[in-house]
Structure formats: C-alpha cells, structure tokens
Amino acid sequence: MKTPFTTEQFFSVFEQYNHATFPSQIILFLLVIFALVIIGSTIKQKDKFVSGILGFIWLWTGIVYHISFFAGINKVAYGFGLLFILQGLFFLWEGVLLYNLKFVYKMSIQAYFGYFFILYGLIIYPVVGYLIEQNISRTISIGLPCPTTILTFGILLLTDKKFSKYLLIIPSLWAVIGISSVLKLGVYQDLMMLIAAIVADIWLLRDRNQEILIEDQPDV
Fold it and tell me: Ramachandran region of residue 7, left (φ > 0), alpha (ψ -120 to 50) or beta?
C-alpha cells in the first residue's frame, strides 16, 4: 500500500518536531537515565517513578509527535496517537496506581537482551540515524515512536514476575506497523524494533507461564 506522504515529507516532520520541541530531547534522555539509575537504587517507590517516566514518554509521543506533528501529513496518526496515549495510561495505571510493575537489574540472558535494547533505543538508534541522514535536526530519538518502543521492550525485560501481559500488545502492534518505515522509507534501524518485540514477547510470556506451572506443582 502506498504511503500518503513522501520520504522527504516524513523526515521533514522530524525536523519540525526537533526544532519546535527543543530541548525536550535532552530532558527525555535525562529522564530515561534517571529511571535506569534508580532501578538499581534503594529509593522508596522507585518502581512507581520508572513506570511514571515510561507512561509520560508514551503520552508525549502520542500527543506531541503523532497528533501535533505527524497528523499533518498522515491523518492515520490520530489513531496512532490514541494507541500511544492508551499505552501511556496503561503504564500509569499498572505501575503508579496499582503498583503492579517491579524492575530489577539481573544477571541473566533475559536481562542482557533488555540492556541491549535499552542501549539501542537510547543511543545506538539516534546515532545510526544521524550517520545516515547527516543532519542532526532530522535525528530520531527518545520521545519519537520507534526508539521509544525499542527502549520500552528493554525496560520490560527487567520486570519481575509481577507483570500484566497486556502491556505488550500495543508496543508489539507498533513494531509490526513500524516495519513499513524500513521497507518504504529506508529507516533501517527500525528492524531492531521487530526483533525486540519478538524477543520480549517470547521471553516474557514464556517465563510467566513457566512460573505459573512451577507454582502449581504440589509440594513433595
């Protein structure tokens, strides 16, 4: 299906967003760094802070990028914005209000994948984008859909067994939608988004099912 905008229009939206919202890129980056630091700390209610930051970034992406900027060249962005707003509210509901999200640094294969996806979404993704475009004004960073989604999968891989599986639905759906940017617009760094979705979905769902089976085993 043909996109309703050209590649030039697509990247121009990022340029407009970056100019209009600066220095939000720095603030969002620092918020993520703060979230990553407190995961390993003894700060009281640190998990609520991390969930709140995740929720805020998804709300920001839905309202500021999708609805305020991307909708200017693609009306479907209003629907995309609604998805991101819902995901942001889900994080606030599950992690801040219900306190159903716990984050912990672990030494495991699952956690190593998480660390890599966090590093990729936060640093590698925008660096690759800059090297391709050679224009810092068109750099795609945290607060924009795809690097935010990759980062989110990484952070979710650091959750413990208290985890609501529906939180994977919208990020996984976006990972599938975002593949069009690879095929039609040449944003090749988005390939990692689908990989992150597959790894996180399989690992988190499998681990949770295994834990349920183990807990259901009768005592000997």
Answer: alpha
Which residues are CB-neighbours of 13 under 8 A, at least 6 positions away?
69, 70, 72, 73
Q: Please give the backbone phi and psi of residue 178, each rounded to the nearest 5 degrees, phi first.
A: -65, -15
Task: Give, in order, the Cα–Cα distances in Å from 128 to each of 11, 98, 158, 190.
Answer: 15, 38, 25, 10
Q: Considering its fold, how many domains does the chain have in total?
A: 1
The tens-digit pLDDT sequence of the chain (220 residues) is: 567 778 888 899 999 999 999 999 999 999 999 999 999 998 889 999 999 999 999 999 999 999 999 999 999 999 999 999 999 999 999 999 999 999 999 999 999 999 999 999 999 999 998 998 788 999 999 999 999 999 999 999 999 877 789 999 999 999 998 887 777 788 889 999 999 999 999 999 875 544 443 334 444 4
Buried b (16+ CB within 10 A) or exposed e, 153-188: bbbbbbbeeebeeebbebbbebbebbeebbeeeebe
Query: Looking at the domain assignment, is residue 220 inside a domain?
Result: no
Residue 218 lies in a domain: no
